[in-house]
Structure formats: structure tokens, C-alpha cells
Amino acid sequence: MSEAAARLDAAATGEVANFTAKPEPAPIPDFSFRNGDGEELTLADFRGKLVLLNIWATWCGPCREEIPELDRLQAELGSDRFEVVALSVDSKGETLVRDFLAEVGAEALALYIDPTAKANFTLGAFGLPTTLLVSPEGLEIGRMVGPAPWASEDAKAFIEEALALYAPAGEG
User: Fold this and answer.
1) Going by C-beta distance under 8 Å and a sequence separation of 6 or more, which residues neighbour residue 15?
2) What pLDDT score was predicted for residue 172?
3) 89-108: string of b/e by CB count within 10 Å (b at 16+)?
4) How far is Cα 60 from Cα 69, in angstroms, rounded to an integer?
């Protein structure tokens, strides 16, 4: 296990203790999704940023509870070095997702959707929510299956440690 992976595992305490770092960052298979403007994107569009990629759906109870937490995390820590990418896999489309985000008051999260849910299979995300931490180079650093209170002090300390390890100040 790399030193960075060991440090991240050590930082994953309390509310985010279920996060598991990969022994070494690993390539992520390509997949595409759309933003709220209908533009097709891939994770390559986020290179240079540490990304917290959350796979979720409006029909998933724990996901519905987690989205406001992710929104607060993005509002507090989102920058040119870090972004929460909350990727909906709702097959009923963008309007449903946009309405849900408005309903819960999510203002900091951008709308990202994969109505085909191919991301689930490509990423091996068979339970929702699943959250991957992606390096600025586009490699999977680790993941967590299940919800987390992402606006908690434990989660913010975890993201700050990841930023220190993978996106040093002044880079990205």
C-alpha cells in the first residue's frame, strides 16, 4: 500500500470510516454522461481537480438524504482544485433530477446525469450511493459504498487530507 493510500485510510474516520483507499491509484474505464446543458462529458473533463464522484438516483432513499450533504461540501470546499460530481443515474431524465435538486435546495452542485446507468456497470457501482475519489490525473484513489454525511467535520478533514496529498496548493 502506498504512503498516500495509508494516509487516506487513516484520515477516513468517524463519519467516513467506510472509505477504502486502493493500494495504488487505478485507471477508471471511460464512460460518458451529460451536464445540465446537455453537453456530453467524461471524467477527463475534470482533469486537474480532485473529484468526489457520487453515483446516485432520486429513487434511492439514502441518496436523497446524502445530496444536501454533498451540496454543502461543494459549497464549502469546491474550487479549481476540488469538485463534487453528483452523477444521477435516473432513467426518467434531467427534469426529474433538476426538480429534486431544487426541492432540496441544492445550489452548489452542478447537474450531471447518466440516464443509461452505464456508469454503474463501468465503475462496478452496484449499490447506491457509491462514491469514488478520483485523482487530478483521473485515477481512482478509493471508494465508499453507502451514504455518508459529507458536510461533517470528519468528511471535510478527509477531503482536506486528500487535497494535501493529490492536489497541492497552487496546482490544478
Assistant:
1) 148, 149, 152, 153, 154, 155
2) 41
3) bbeeebebbeebbeeeebee
4) 15
CA separation for the pair 83, 43 (Å, rounded): 11
**Structure pTM?**
0.95
Sole residue written with cell 468528511:
155
Grid cell locating 61 = 432513499
> Cell 454522461 maps to which residue?
33
Cis peptide bond N-terminal to 136, omega within 30: no
Instruction: Give the full edge-to-edge strand order of the sheet including 112-113.
Output: 20-27, 139-145, 130-134, 50-56, 82-88, 112-113, 33-35, 40-41
Q: What letter represents residue 16's amino acid?
A: V
| 23-78 pLDDT, tens digit each | 999 999 999 999 999 999 999 999 999 999 999 999 999 999 999 999 999 999 99
Q: Is 138 left (phi over 0), alpha (psi -120 to 50) or beta?
A: left
Other CB atoms within 10 A of residue 3 CB: 8
Provide the β-strand partners of residue 53. Answer: 85, 132
Biggest alpha carbon–alpha carbon distance for the chain = 43
Side chain identity at residue 143, one-letter code: R
